[in-house]
Write a structure and sequence with these properties.
The structure is a single chain. The chain is an alpha/beta fold. It folds into two domains: 128 residues, Rossmann fold, CATH 3.40.50.1370; 156 residues, Rossmann fold (3-Layer(aba) Sandwich), CATH 3.40.50. The protein has eleven helices and nine strands. Strands 7-6-5-8-9 form a five-stranded parallel beta sheet. Helix 4 links the parallel strand 3 and strand 4. The longest helix has 19 residues. The two termini are 19 Å apart. The protein binds phosphoric acid mono(formamide)ester (CP). The site of phosphoric acid mono(formamide)ester has 9 residues, from helix 2.
Length: 305
């Protein structure tokens, strides 16, 4: 039995296959409409979500399966003190596969040790968000036709942003990737990620504070929200929250063929005037999230269509 806990759990070749299935799902959705008939997905969300929970649910429903679960810790027996281990043992009796989001780093990994069904990490604290990474890779490949030889700007809260952490690990396995790490000093990428992946793999990167410094060089600009829920101090959040606002004036300095991605939700970091720019790809990205999660569910349940 296989789980998805880390963005490195699938090889580059396996990711390619997964993305090919996702593209086929996009083009031939009817072919997959009954693939998971009789199967159930449990969504165990101890932390707020719109896209990740609903896109997992939409994915399973599109495959002809059904869904059950909870959308906050308060509405589960976690509120009475139940452990993640006991919850997943119980859910293993009710469902065929589970997606778990948890505010504590490592909780889905713990769940996977006690589970008798595949567990998908749907985001654990400030650590990883591997299904967002699958979504991001599919979006990048679909928009540019490749994942190699790209310059990617990661902008915003690089300290707490788990989508960025997972994406760096995943992209570091592709040839010719370069990063611009765009953040205020206080929200820089943690040293352990720089040492563990960027330095170890000799990946070219530049840390800059001003977004304008990076813009002309980029193939993709990946914006992120300042992660309010991970701050220990409200004043620090207020000071940081509007540090970056991508607007039409800044977009005018970006290359014609540079796409803007964002895992969403956005707060103020992308002005709504950018939404009509043909380079704004974040809602398309949310759509790709359904196709790749459909492909992932099929893979983890060992179902071929
Ligand atoms: N991208 C993402 O994780 O969004 P949600 O928090 O809405 O699931």
């Amino acid at each position: 039995m296989r789980h998805l806990i880390s963005p490195l759990d699938f090889s580059v070749e396996e990711l390619d296959t997964l993305m090919n299935v996702a593209n086929d799902i996009e083009n031939n959705p009817d072919k997959y409409a009954h693939a998971c008939e009789g199967k159930k997905l449990a969504t165990l969300f101890y932390e707020a979500s719109t896209r990740t929970r609903l896109s997992h649910e939409a994915a399973m429903l599109n495959l002809g399966g059904s869904v059950l679960g909870f959308s906050s810790a308060d509405s589960s027996s976690a509120a009475k003190g139940e452990s993640v281990a006991d919850t997943i043992r119980t859910v293993s009796c009710y469902a065929d596969i589970a997606a778990m989001r948890h505010p504590k780093e490592g909780a889905p990994l713990v769940a996977s040790k006690y589970s008798s069904i595949p567990v998908i990490n749907a985001g654990d604290g400030g650590h990883q968000h591997p299904t967002q990474t699958l979504t991001d890779l599919l979006t990048i490949r679909s928009l540019k036709g490749r994942i190699n030889n790209l310059t990617i700007g990661l902008c915003g809260d690089l300290k707490f942003g788990r989508t960025v952490h997972s994406l760096i690990y995943a992209l570091s396995r592709y040839e010719g990737i370069e990063f611009y790490l765009i953040s205020p000093k206080e929200l820089r990428l943690p040293d352990y990620i720089k040492e563990d992946v960027l330095d170890k793999k000799n990946i070219k990167y530049k840390e800059v504070i001003r977004i304008e410094e990076a813009l002309p060089e980029l193939d993709f600009l990946y914006m992120t929200r300042v992660q309010k829920e991970r701050f220990f101090n409200e004043d620090d959040y207020i000071r940081m929250k509007d540090f970056y606002i991508l607007d039409a004036e800044k977009m005018a300095k970006a290359p014609e063929e540079m796409y803007v991605l964002h895992p969403l939700p956005r707060v103020n970091e992308i002005s709504i005037e950018v939404d009509n720019d043909p380079r704004a790809a974040y809602f398309k990205q949310a759509q790709y999230g359904v196709y790749i999660r459909m492909a992932l569910i099929l893979n983890l349940l060992n179902i071929t269509v």
